[in-house]
Design a protein that fits this description.
By secondary structure, the protein is an alpha+beta fold. About 30% of the residues lie in helices and about 30% in strands. It has four helices and seven strands, in the order βααβββαβαββ. It has a seven-stranded mixed sheet, sandwiched between helices. The chain starts with a strand and ends in a 21-residue tail after the last strand. GO terms for molecular function: acyltransferase activity, transferring groups other than amino-acyl groups. It comes from Thomasclavelia cocleata.
């Protein structure tokens, strides 16, 4: 099986949204409760790509997962930290797709001079937490009953991975749209 990672294109929006939709409707993996319109979701991709990577994973030219980074906080002092998100088609779990997407995100983030990768995870089971631990993330915060969805309260954890050394003067953050990105 060959997993190909590419930059998402606005024309991919329906396929990407179809992967995300079951997570919205049937799980608390995302705390989003309503499926966004295709146009709203397309705009999210376009806006993300200005500063951060938005990637799709393909097998046999079919999109089977996606991942992106986004601003950790919208303040200049946080330019070296991002929040990560990854979603894999429910029929393609445990095939290395999430790992391939995260590895590519990390590679790109290093080129952007990102130092901290952060993941916000709803505590449903050990799956997402274990995946992030396997990818080198450590838990840095635990929040109790902070999200309510599908008739239940959920705890949430923040996990973090350091990509580089925090020097006195960090290298300048490079927006993804300005990066000379090579596959």
């Amino acid at each position: 099986m060959n997993i190909v990672i590419e930059i998402a294109k606005p024309k991919d929006v329906e396929k990407i949204l179809n992967i995300y939709k079951p997570y919205i409707l049937n799980t608390a993996i995302t705390f989003e409760c309503e499926v966004p319109s295709i146009e709203e979701f397309r705009q999210r991709i376009i806006n993300t790509l200005k500063n951060y990577p938005y990637l799709v994973a393909k097998i046999d030219d079919v999109i089977v997962g996606y991942a992106y980074t986004s601003a950790f906080k919208n303040r200049a002092a946080y330019n070296w930290a991002v929040e990560t998100s990854v979603y894999v088609d429910v029929k393609h779990h445990n095939m290395g797709i999430g790992k391939a997407l995260y590895q590519k995100l990390e590679n790109i983030s290093k080129k952007q001079n990102i130092l901290n990768m952060n993941a916000c995870i709803a505590v449903l089971d050990k799956g997402s937490v274990s995946f992030h631990q396997h990818m080198g993330y450590v838990q840095v915060a635990y929040f109790h009953q902070c999200g309510y969805k599908l008739g239940k309260w959920y705890d949430m954890v923040w996990m973090e991975k350091m990509l580089g050394e925090h020097k006195v003067e960090p290298e300048t953050f490079i927006p993804f749209s300005k990066l000379d990105y090579q596959r």
